[in-house]
Design brief:
Largest sheet: 6 strands, parallel
Number of helices: 11
CATH class: Alpha Beta
Strand order of the largest sheet: 5-3-6-2-7-8
Distance between the termini: 35 Å
CATH superfamily: P-loop containing nucleotide triphosphate hydrolases
Radius of gyration: 18 Å
Number of domains: 1
CATH architecture: 3-Layer(aba) Sandwich
Structural class: alpha/beta
Bound molecules: adenosine-5'-diphosphate, magnesium ion
Number of strands: 8
Helix content: 25-40%
């Protein structure tokens, strides 16, 4: 069993035990060193059905993410950015699939931990696509029924950590612009500087969900699906992004062969 770099990700060490030790809960700052992230297995057939190809480091298809990963990380590093929001003009652009593959690709090919957070509170899909058990999730975290350590999951890939959302969260616009969510974003960002946090956001034009929370992220990646969005929708999306740091736009589903990203 592989371990995370103990110098940088002390709270996210992989162990097979789910329980936090009593000492971990009761000794303040040092306690974080002993917190254990739940490790859950991934099923390749389930992943492939959901177009998650980057779990296999050597898969020819995971190569499609190399360029995207390299460019995104380069810009993020140059600017000291650690949080990346992924959005699109409208639903079904492939945000969630892209977010998962990009996070896995970062975990595989860099020394950074990739933490993927499901913030599409209306249509959460990260846990479902990955086939994660979600007895505790963002739902419980935001309801004050769980601690952060309890809701983070490590789906066997080293340095890949997920904060899934099990079911839609009502009043999603209000929740996303709440102080609790602002604190969560800041906390996830500040805890380790060797961590890239990717937020799978709702679409821009379907609701006000994204607008208020957008300034909390260091940068944004816009996913546009080929043929799905009009020029007007794309222009409107760019307008919505306003002063946010747009790191790039991905034209998704670009080729008839479904799995291509360019
Ligand atoms: N590159 C792609 N080519 C073809 N289909 C894709 C691609 N990316 C995603 N899909 C499919 O499109 C649908 C929507 O993808 P999803 O990631 O859930 O979109 P979003 O999160 O933007 O709503 C899913 O059925 C997914 O498998
Ligand atoms: Mg989605």
């Amino acid at each position: 069993m592989e371990m995370f770099n103990p110098d940088t990700e002390k709270t996210e060490q992989q162990t097979s035990s789910k329980a936090m030790t009593p000492t971990a809960q009761s000794t303040g700052l040092n306690a974080l060193s002993y917190v254990q992230t739940k490790v859950v297995p991934l099923r390749p057939d389930h992943l492939e059905r959901n177009r998650i190809v980057a779990y296999n480091k050597n898969s020819s298809m995971s190569g499609a993410f190399d360029l995207l990963r390299t460019q995104v990380l380069k810009t993020m590093e140059e600017n000291g950015w650690r949080t990346l929001a992924i959005t699109s003009p409208t639903p079904e652009a492939g945000k969630t699939v892209l977010a998962i593959n990009l996070a896995m690709s970062i975990a595989h090919h860099t020394t950074k931990t990739a933490l993927l957070v499901d913030f599409d509170l209306r249509r959460p899909k990260v846990g479902e696509y990955l086939g994660l058990p979600m007895d505790k999730s963002l739902n419980e975290l935001l309801a004050d029924e769980a601690e952060l350590q309890e809701v983070l999951v490590n789906p066997t890939l080293p340095r890949f950590v997920v904060l899934p959302t099990r079911e839609p969260i009502p009043l999603s616009t209000e929740v996303l612009s709440s102080p609790a969510v602002s604190h969560l974003i800041a906390d996830l960002r500040e805890r380790y500087n060797s961590r890239i946090v990717i937020f799978d956001l709702p679409p821009l034009l379907s609701s006000d969900d994204v607008i208020n929370v957008l300034p909390r992220f260091d940068c944004v990646l816009l996913v546009v699906a080929n043929g799905l969005n009009s020029r007007k929708e794309i222009e409107e999306s760019l307008h919505h992004l306003g002063t946010a740091n747009l790191i790039g736009t991905v034209l998704n589903k670009a080729e008839p062969e479904n799995r291509s990203y360019y």
